[in-house]
Amino acid sequence: MSAYAVLGATSWGVTLAALLERAGSDVILVVRSELEAHAVRAAGGLERLGAGRVLGPRVHVHPAPLTPGHAASLAGALVAVPSHAVRESVLASGLPATVPVVSATKGLDLETSSRMTALLAALGFDPARTGALSGPNLAHEIIRGLPAAAVVAVPDPDLGLAWQHALSHGAFRVYASTDVVGVELAGALKNVIAIAAGAAWGLGFGANAVAAIMTRGLAEMTRLGLALGAELATFNGLAGVGDLAATCFSPLSRNRRFGELLAAGRSPPRPPPKSAKRSKGPAPRPSPSAWPPLPASSSPSPPRSRPSSAAPAPSPRRCFASSAVRSPAKNSPPVMLRSR
Ligand SMILES: NC(=O)C1=CN([C@@H]2O[C@H](COP(=O)(O)OP(=O)(O)OC[C@H]3O[C@@H](n4cnc5c(N)ncnc54)[C@H](O)[C@@H]3O)[C@@H](O)[C@H]2O)C=CC1
Ligand SMILES: O=C(CO)COP(=O)(O)O
After folding, report:
1. In degrees, to the nearest 5, what angle opens at C-alpha 191 toward C-alphas 186 and 194?
2. What are the beta bridge partners of residue 306?
3. Do 164 and 11 form a contact (C-beta atoms < 8 A)?
4. Which of 111, 113, 139, 154 fits 11 for a cystine, CB–CB 3.0-4.6 Å?
5. Which residue has its alpha carbon closest to ligand 1 atom 20?
6. What is the pLDDT, as a whole number, of residue 332?
7. Where is the composition biased (Pro residues) (predicted)?
8. Cβ of residue 253 lying under 6 Å from some atom of ligand 2
9. 225 lines ligand 1 (CB under 6 A)
């Protein structure tokens, strides 16, 4: 029997496990502990996805590490844990470095700023068989069978085709690419722009401002991507403008929500002080997913006023707007799409 492993009982990890199963594969969902395995088995998925029992009998939920038997049977593995947990999760998983691996994580390594596939290469995985999956892929929609498309990038085109077949099912369509750098960078960089878009929504700026942030943000993402070896087409595709649009506009996006909460005057949760005793594992990081959900509403929140004090502070709305206007409107450099 050949099977796919998915690392992480996260929203995206459980969704990918369900997609692989629906497309006809056996899946081993590798989780952190027996307790977590028990919870996922009992729920048939993840309660926070709110979609009920989504995992069928071909998904085997297993605490790390994989058994040697499981490890030997793998056709591939998907990594779907937050970026700060990738190194530790892969090491704990017992995943053999000979297995083709695809990162579904959107982010860079906090310590080294490495892309996730570079991190995987540093852990011994063959770069030619290591890839990235990205696109406008809100797990809450995909797990409910709503139509969506993604792109999987692997240097070896035959392997890309195999991943495309393994993941495509029903209304989930997967395109293949070889631009690993571009797909991965686009997925990480769009989060930054989505936070700015969220702040704009939170300040009540409206769709014009968000569209401007997205357009100029895409230009910056593209310039940085090209400088780091990515292909222009990737930024004009699903992993680039596609994901940027979904993340900046959907109220389901945690990055957008993070920006909205910043605009509402909230501070990100802080990690515990260094002296505080903490259990083994990566330090918790303030991240969009650490904040509570906003009320389910797609309408932009009105700007909040600050508490009054002797000297009234300028409103975040005014500061943001005036600094945006002060920034010189430069012409796009040659690599850009010529539009502004
Ligand atoms: N949620 C989504 O719609 C999508 C998420 N992604 C990416 O997938 C990665 C995971 O994101 P989500 O699925 O949204 O996460 P999530 O917010 O659903 O889960 C993160 C939480 O899962 C728990 N967790 C479970 N297994 C873990 C492990 N092995 N290591 C660390 N924490 C673990 C922790 O409590 C952590 O805070 C991120 O890099 C994200 O950018 C990519 C596409 C879509
Ligand atoms: O990447 C995503 C959708 O494609 C998920 O976005 P958030 O991480 O902002 O929720």
Report:
1. 120
2. none
3. no
4. 139
5. 10
6. 44
7. 283-305
8. yes
9. no
* Ligand 2 atom at shortest distance from the alpha carbon of 134: 4
DSSP letter string over 267-317? PPPPPPPTTS---SSSPP---GGGSPPPPS--SPPPPPPPPP-SSPPPPHH
Residue 86: beta bridge partners? none
Class of domain 3-178: alpha beta
Per-domain residue ranges for the chain? 3-178, 183-263
Q: What pLDDT does residue 242 have?
A: 98
CATH 3.10.290.10 correct for 183-263: no
pLDDT at site 31: 98
Which residue owns the Cα nearest ligand 2 atom 8? 254
Q: Ligand 1 within 6 A of 289 CB?
A: yes
Residue 137 C-alpha to ligand 2 middle, in angstroms?
7
Q: Which ipTM did the prediction report? A: 0.99
Residue whose CB lies within 8 A of the most ligand 2 atoms, among 15, 255, 260, for a mutation test: 255
* 137 in a known ligand binding site: no
pLDDT at 330: 52
Intrachain domains 3-178 and 183-263 with the same fold: no
pLDDT digits (tens, 9 = 90+) for 172-186: 999 999 999 999 999
Residue 267: pLDDT over 60? yes
The residue that leads in pLDDT, 279 or 136, is: 136
